[in-house]
């Protein structure tokens, strides 16, 4: 038993050593970084890009450089919450990603999405072009952030939309997408296994009773905006006031059940 443990321990040390070597190789390939690029390119970040490109340093470098260029122009960390129009809906999605990452527990790199399709129709769906752009941003600039995505209660007609959208997903991401039907116990149980049942809302088979309070949600978002500004080292130029319930923000989200990230 001692020999087996020792061999296993050595293998783990070798894996960690190889991983560290790859991270150092990628960092060297990127060259000197400064400011927000340096802060973004943490060891954990480099590992995600390496994993997304099967540990190929050259491909990981190209992917990461494209992300740094995108972040310098799109400025996702400067988005504040209030939006209308399709382009702004994508900015809203980016805002939610940045916000979720900011609030991940220390040491947790991935999150689980729970998307409720109750009431979804083709007339209320986003255009395919917008869906494709959203998927490209998530796959290219937020690699290895998705642990699993549960599509809850999708209507039959969604299948036609999905047949188009799924071709934009890389195979690894596609495997993380799970369909959940309330009347299918197996799919519900798979979903429940990813969440703390006490925090999962009752409408999704959990025990938590949540009531959306837009005023409170606005306050929390304003706090997160300030936390984001502090993290990236700039003063928040946006002044918020929550008296009207909208926080004077740049992204006003639609009421939705709030499900914490899986631990």
From TrEMBL:
GO terms for molecular function: phosphatidylinositol transfer activity. It comes from the Eukaryota. Gene3D superfamilies: CRAL-TRIO lipid binding domain (3.40.525.10). InterPro entries: CRAL-TRIO_dom (IPR001251), CRAL-TRIO_dom_sf (IPR036865), CRAL/TRIO_N_dom (IPR011074), CRAL/TRIO_N_dom_sf (IPR036273), PI_Transfer_CRAL-TRIO (IPR052578). Residues 90-212 form the CRAL-TRIO domain. Pfam families: CRAL_TRIO, CRAL_TRIO_N. This is CRAL-TRIO domain-containing protein.
């Amino acid at each position: 038993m001692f020999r087996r443990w020792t061999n296993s321990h050595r293998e783990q040390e070798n894996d960690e050593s190889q991983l560290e070597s790859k991270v150092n190789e990628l960092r060297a390939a990127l060259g000197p970084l400064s400011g927000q690029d340096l802060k973004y390119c943490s060891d954990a970040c480099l590992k995600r890009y390496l994993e997304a490109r099967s540990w190929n340093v050259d491909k990981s470098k190209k992917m990461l450089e494209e992300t740094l260029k995108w972040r310098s122009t799109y400025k996702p960390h400067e988005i504040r919450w209030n939006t209308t129009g399709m382009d702004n809906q994508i900015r809203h999605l980016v805002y939610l990603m940045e916000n979720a990452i900011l609030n991940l527990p220390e040491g947790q790199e991935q999150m689980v999405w729970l998307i409720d399709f109750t009431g979804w129709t083709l007339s209320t769906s986003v255009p395919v072009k917008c869906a494709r752009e959203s998927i490209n941003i998530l796959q290219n600039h937020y690699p290895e952030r998705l642990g699993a995505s549960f599509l809850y209660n999708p209507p039959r007609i969604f299948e036609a939309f999905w047949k188009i959208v799924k071709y934009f997903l890389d195979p690894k991401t596609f495997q993380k997408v799970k369909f959940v039907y309330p009347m299918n116990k197996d799919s519900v149980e798979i979903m429940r296994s990813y969440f703390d049942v006490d925090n999962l809302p009752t409408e999704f088979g959990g025990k938590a009773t949540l009531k959306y309070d837009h005023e409170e949600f606005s306050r929390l978002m304003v706090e997160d905006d300030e936390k984001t500004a502090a993290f990236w080292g700039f003063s928040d130029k946006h002044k918020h006031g929550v008296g009207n319930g909208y926080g004077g923000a740049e992204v006003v989200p639609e009421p939705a059940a709030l499900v914490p990230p899986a631990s």
